[in-house]
Amino acid sequence: FPNSRVRLFDILPAGWDKGCATLELARALGLTPDEVAVFGDSDNDLPMINAVPNSVAVANANEAVTAAARWHIGAVADDAVAGALHQIAACAATGEMPSFMRQMDATGLGVMNV
């Protein structure tokens, strides 16, 4: 189980994961992987994080997701995902990159303070 406090688990068809689903949805919508952003925090998100270049880990993500993600934002509890999505939507109209995708930390990974 990805989270021992919440009693949920993922059931997926054999050979499928969130990465496959992300790429299939993008294809169905006519998007390239470069046009997709994903957000994750747990091991079950790793295939999705690795499937597209615009991958984002939240502050409470586990070590594997944090290491795999290109960008990093604040905690889910602080509405960081909502803030990041708002930035993406606002920047789509101007053609700019959201600020969390422009800022780099010392490791070369994107960061956002929300």
Describe the structure.
The structure is a single chain. This protein has 114 residues and is α/β, with parallel strands linked by helices. The protein has one domain (18-111): 3-Layer(aba) Sandwich (Rossmann fold), CATH 3.40.50.1000. It is 37% helix and 11% strand. It has helices spanning 18-28, 46-51, 63-68, 80-94, 99-102; strands at 37-40, 54-57, 71-72, 110-111. Strands 1-2-3-4 form a 4-stranded parallel β-sheet. The longest helix has 15 residues, at 80-94. The radius of gyration is 14 Å and the shape is globular. It starts with 17 loop residues before the first helix and ends with a strand. 23% of the residues are buried.
Keywords for this entry:
single chain; 114 residues; alpha/beta; Rossmann fold; 5 helices
What is the architecture at the second tier of CATH? 3-Layer(aba) Sandwich
Strand content bin: 5-15%
Query: At the third CATH level, what is the topology name?
Result: Rossmann fold
Specify the biggest β-sheet.
Answer: 4 strands, parallel
What is the fourth-level CATH superfamily?
HAD superfamily/HAD-like
Average pLDDT figure: 86
CA-based gyration radius: 14 Å
Structural domain tally: 1
- CATH class bucket: Alpha Beta
Arrangement of strands in the largest sheet:
1-2-3-4
Q: Structural class of the secondary elements?
A: alpha/beta
Detail the poorly predicted runs. none
Helix content: 25-40%
So what's the overall shape?
globular
| Separate helix tally | 5
* N to C succession of SSEs: HEHEHEHHE
Could you tell me how far the N terminus lies from the C terminus, measured between alpha carbons in angstroms? Answer: 28 Å
